[in-house]
Amino acid sequence: MLARNHGAHLFVAITLAIPLLAAAPARAVVVRGPVNVTNDPYAENEETLGMDPTGTLLASAWNDWNYNDGCGFSFSTTGGATWAPKTFVPGLTAFTNDPDVPGTGPYAVAGDPAVAFNPKFGVFDVVCQAFGGTSSAISLLATTFDQSKANLAADENESYGATAWTTPVAVSTGKSNGAQKGHNGQFPDHESITVDTATGSGHHFGRLYVSWAMFNGNGRSPITVAFSDDDGHSWKGPFVVSDKAHTTNQDARLVIAPDGTLYMTFLGGPNEKSLKDNFVAVAKSTNGRTWSATHEVAPIVVPTPGLLPNSSYRVFADVTSSVDLASRQLVMAFTDQRSGASQVYVVHQRRPGRLSRWSSPRRVKPSSREEFFPWMSAAPNGRLDLVFYDRSCDPGDTLDCVTLASSSDAGVSWRRTSLLARGFDGDRFDACLAFVQPIDCGRKFLGDYIAVASTNAKAVSVFTGNGPASLDVFSVTASAP
Asked: Tens of pLDDT along 367-391?
């Protein structure tokens, strides 16, 4: 998250028929969108997405640069074709999007949201980082959203009504390895959320996991996890995942195999600033409490240094992962500049469950232009869906498109299509706070990630793009006709 203080062109909707999602032989896939979810005069970025098993109910959250400076939120009951009027997660900040209407939380800022659908309880679990205001702590706060209780007629500052939400609960209280003191460099970052959706042996149906990198103020950031069996009302942990030989890490992502095995994937390196000896890593567990030794899976030969050519918004190395639910192999995708431009590479387990043998890294979409911010999801039928920003649509290597790549063989081969008819300039609009900063405040920021969620029939992606007046949230759906 980019710490903040209080103080165009519009995409055209497109429908494309392109071979993409299905296993060979290819079938035509209809790409619907993009749909402007927010259409806001101020910026939004860092999207996350949850979807129910039918693909009908979706919820998305994002960094909201309105006066609220919190976690923006919307949901869909039409599979992403239409979205409810945008609002924000309540109970976090002391502000709303109206300076004259107080918020319901104690914090000045909230962001880095994560959302997942919990089939056991039939609601969306939401976690956000919050800091500043009357508390010196930096907290990870968990709440739930019940779409069946949402009031669509409520004012934007009422967040669909108080009855649709539970009171936010701290994931970690700062009494253990997950200390969140909010000073001396101690803070949790880039949290992610995973729900165990299976009911078979080895699973904990409905268990909610939150993982993050815990910066402890001494140049170290172990990967940490906590879990809840009562939909976020109480938490066990935090438990340290990364071993003592791997102390500087980021971008924790927990995924669950068909047999219930937990895999935690993340980035590692010798220190926070080093661009040498970086790698993607994994550890596994059967209970969420105790974890294997950290295994270095593949080196990141040339990490992205923070900026890409022809742009001013920050871009760092990223890693994402999913389990191919047919082959049971863990697949990891990450960015590397080993080929010159930032590109998305994938690796997979040679054998399910084994952490010692991996395929060689291969590019998902070989190109001489920049690719960044990958995110992956898995469909029940074994299809993997991977989205990322991709400049191969622009000969000038400046405009950003979004690519959706799909694989039915654990990442060995990929079918790809662009989700946008044309690219957007990520530097066109600044990320400025409403009522506080001028519209040309000079903050260039696209966030650090985008999102995708999958069913057997479709993949839905949410990402940042240029709206009429600012950076908006867009959704695109790719599905069989």
From this structure: 999 999 999 999 999 999 999 999 9
pLDDT at site 174:
56
Alpha carbons 70 and 86: distance in angstroms, whole number = 13
| Check whether domain 14-479 has CATH 3.30.565.10, yes or no | no
Domain ranges of the chain: 14-479
Q: In what order do the strands lie in the sheet with 109-118?
A: 109-118, 123-131, 139-145, 169-170
Question: 3 exposed, middle or buried (CB, 10 Å; 0-12, 13-18, 19+)?
Answer: exposed
DSSP for 341-396, written as a single string: S-EEEEEEBSSTT-SS-BPPPEESS--SS-EEEEEEEE-TTS-EEEEEEE-TT-TT
Residue 183 φ/ψ, nearest 5 degrees: -145, 170
**Residues 449, 440: Cα–Cα separation, whole Å:** 23
Number of residues assigned to the chain:
481
Is 43 strand, coil or helix? Answer: coil
Q: For residue 124, which amino acid is it?
A: F
Please, are residues 308 and 372 in contact by the beta-carbon 8 Å criterion?
Answer: yes
Residues of the chain with pLDDT under 70: 1-27, 135, 173-184, 480-481
